[in-house]
Write a structure and sequence with these properties.
DNA binding, CheY-like_superfamily, Rossmann fold, 6 strands, WalR-like, six-stranded parallel sheet, elongated, LuxR family two component transcriptional regulator, Sig_transdc_resp-reg_receiver, 226 residues, Arc Repressor Mutant, subunit A, 11 helices, alpha/beta
Length: 226
């Protein structure tokens, strides 16, 4: 770090202590960054920011804990609490709908946890210099990332993506993630199993979801399921 330049104050959050230790070690090695707060849940992170001055937040996307927010809800709360505060998200999520949703909810950068050791400091420098950052493993799976040039508001939120579905597709998705089988949905809606299955698959394609695991994750983050 150049003498006389104040370090960037960082608050880090992850529900795995070993990840916090690793992040802190990487940031300290660089010298430009100073960790001024740590949190193990969304609630703790919001509490830290309430009484701590910082220039950057690095947080895990999924920190499930009873009574505490994570995911897109946490990102939105962070933006309401500290508008304009840069946030870098660490995540295992790779589906396009949720990655776009992270940027739409206010993230300045998204780093795949599998690439954290290679990319975290690169992302920190990019964000500190006013640029966006998207992890290389995720970038390969997206056709366009306009927010990287400062146009994050153009990113399509999951809620907006959901509105792109037809009413019938949306109904099938809501029922499916709510625990009903394709056969049950078909019987209750008086449609054929083939039709319901096709509507579910069409909805997943429109949302950019590759499998049912991603569908359930998407549903949880937009409030379609508990």
């Amino acid at each position: 770090m150049t003498s006389g330049i104040a370090p960037v104050k960082v608050v880090i959050a992850d529900d795995h202590p070993v990840v916090l230790v690793g992040m802190k070690a990487m940031l300290h090695q660089d010298g430009r960054w100073r960790v001024v707060g740590e949190a193990g849940s969304g609630r703790e992170l919001l509490g830290r920011l309430g009484g701590c001055e910082c220039d950057l937040v690095i947080t895990d996307f999924s920190m499930p804990r009873e009574g505490s927010e994570d995911g897109l809800l946490l990102l939105r709360r962070l933006q309401r609490l500290r508008p304009g505060l840069p946030v870098i998200v660490l995540t295992m999520v790779h589906n396009g709908a949720l990655v776009r949703g992270m940027f739409a909810a206010g993230a300045a950068g998204v780093v795949a946890k599998t690439a954290m050791t290679r990319e975290l400091l690169v992302a920190c420098h990019a964000v500190a210099n006013g640029r966006g950052y998207l992890s290389e493993p995720m970038r390969k799976g997206l056709e366009a990332v306009p927010w990287l040039d400062g146009a994050r508001s153009q990113a399509l939120s999951p809620e907006a993506a959901l509105s792109s579905l037809s009413p019938r597709e949306a109904e099938v998705v809501r029922r499916y993630v709510g625990g009903q089988s394709v056969s049950e949905i078909a019987r209750q809606l008086s449609r054929s199993v083939k039709t319901v299955s096709q509507q579910k698959n069409d909805a997943m394609r429109k949302l950019g979801l590759a499998n049912h695991s991603q569908l359930y994750e998407f549903a949880r983050n937009v409030g379609l399921s508990s």
